[in-house]
Design a protein that fits this description.
Elements (H helix, E strand, L loop, with lengths): L1 H13 L6 E2 L2 E2 H7 L5 H9 L7 H12 L1 E7 L11 E5 L2 E2 L2 E2 L1 E2 L6 E11 L2 E5 L2 H5 L1
Parallel strand pairs: 3-8
Antiparallel strand pairs: 1-2, 1-7, 3-4, 5-6, 8-9
Helix pairs in contact: 1-3, 1-4
């Protein structure tokens, strides 16, 4: 989990001058709207803060940082029925457009990275066969 947070944080710190957008808004404007004075304050206060749930920001940034699509399989151990686990693809799209993107976004979609997501913990998995189990 910390490795994923660090990858997302390193991407933001390294490429903060890029035209990164979230729902059409510049990432820096989104960060300022959350009362952070800088991108580095956001990294320290959100992405690298262990007691905060940063999964939304991490899963949004990782596909851009890794240049790879990510499929998240959500395991809910409190479920009482036989419904399959929720599956989310990142980067997320709304009306055919990526919610989060940068000016040089190129993804390798033919083989997404699979992430097993459990409450307060996630693991990167490499095998689709394992996910299907």
């Amino acid at each position: 989990q910390m490795m994923c947070r660090e990858l997302a944080a390193n991407y933001l710190a390294t490429y903060e001058e890029r035209s990164i957008t979230l729902n059409g808004l510049k990432m820096l404007d989104v960060i300022y709207a959350q009362n952070y004075a800088s991108i580095h304050d956001f990294i320290a206060g959100e992405l690298l803060e262990n007691k905060k749930d940063a999964s939304g920001a991490v899963f949004s940034l990782l596909p851009i940082a890794l240049r790879h699509s990510i499929t998240s399989i959500v395991i809910d151990f409190n479920k009482t029925d036989d419904t399959p686990p929720a599956v989310n693809d990142f980067p997320a799209k709304v009306d055919g457009s990526y919610i989060l993107s940068d000016d040089r976004l190129v993804l390798h979609k033919e083989s997404p990275i699979n992430v097993l997501f459990k409450p307060v913990h996630y693991d990167i998995l490499y095998s689709q066969k394992y996910i299907e189990k």
